[in-house]
Amino acid sequence: MQFVEEIVVDEFLPTIRSLLAGELRERGLTQSDVADVLGISQSAVSKYAHGDVTINERVANDERVSATIEELADGLSTGDVTPVQALIELEVLVRELETGGDLLAQLHEEAVPELADHGASFRVHDPESDLRTSERVVSSLRRGLRILENASGFARLIPAVGSNLVACTPDAEGIDDVAGVPGRIFDVKGRTTVPAAPEFGVSEHVATVLLAARRHGADASAAINIAYEDDLLADLTERGHVAAEFDEVDDIASSVGAAIDDQPEATVLYQTGGTGIEPLIYVLGADAESVANDVRSLL
């Protein structure tokens, strides 16, 4: 099993760095300067300069790669382009070359010829394919979970029923289109514990809240539930969130929908509990990382 990302790391990245290092050296930058610009060690620059790193000739000879390297080398050497801007340009190039039938897609399919067995309908390198969309959702969710796991103090925000960070596909219609953590996120002796890798179709409660909000016009693709506290709610509103209350005693989807209808700009939904119902806050956002960062800001 080999992912296209491995092709990027093993074939594309060494070639790009080698070519860019050479072009920057030709423009008068010292080995130390090149190391700083590329974010690598001087010894690595030396290896690139002496041809000790194997490059992929098909990548090196691609006209778009050559043009991008020339443009970035000019900009980086004069300071007109920052390393961050160069990174963005290269990210865009990678996505272009991953598109079905293009260079990185070809290299991947050659490395994993079994992909052809899935037929033309299986378009793994089509950025709009269901598989690629699902990959992006789960990848975003993993990053969001890492933010929460590394956020000191998040465990205290986890309610007794557990938290779940969920994210959905752009055209989500049901729970199977929402990814979450199987078994939820729990506080185990003061430590945030994620029991399993995220999957689609494993969150019913938080997924229901997210889907209901979206059906009533909320511009959100991710959500998390945390314990309710007056101070937390106040802090979220101070940070620019619009809050709307709903009643979880009745049908959740209908109650959430009514809350969004009353407050179309709401990015925080909350209920203050009832008999046998724990009070909770739900934070909505564009993606899992932004939701996780919003919650981390409360700590």
UniProtKB/TrEMBL annotation:
<dbReference type="InterPro" id="IPR019293">
    <property type="entry name" value="ThiN"/>
</dbReference>
<feature type="domain" description="HTH cro/C1-type">
    <location>
        <begin position="26"/>
        <end position="48"/>
    </location>
</feature>
<dbReference type="Pfam" id="PF01381">
    <property type="entry name" value="HTH_3"/>
</dbReference>
<dbReference type="GO" id="GO:0004789">
    <property type="term" value="F:thiamine-phosphate diphosphorylase activity"/>
</dbReference>
<protein>
    <submittedName>
        <fullName>HTH domain protein / thiamine-phosphate synthase</fullName>
        <ecNumber>2.5.1.3</ecNumber>
    </submittedName>
</protein>
<dbReference type="InterPro" id="IPR001387">
    <property type="entry name" value="Cro/C1-type_HTH"/>
</dbReference>
<dbReference type="InterPro" id="IPR010982">
    <property type="entry name" value="Lambda_DNA-bd_dom_sf"/>
</dbReference>
<keyword id="KW-0808">Transferase</keyword>
<dbReference type="Pfam" id="PF10120">
    <property type="entry name" value="ThiN"/>
</dbReference>
<dbReference type="InterPro" id="IPR036409">
    <property type="entry name" value="Aldolase_II/adducin_N_sf"/>
</dbReference>
<dbReference type="GO" id="GO:0003677">
    <property type="term" value="F:DNA binding"/>
</dbReference>
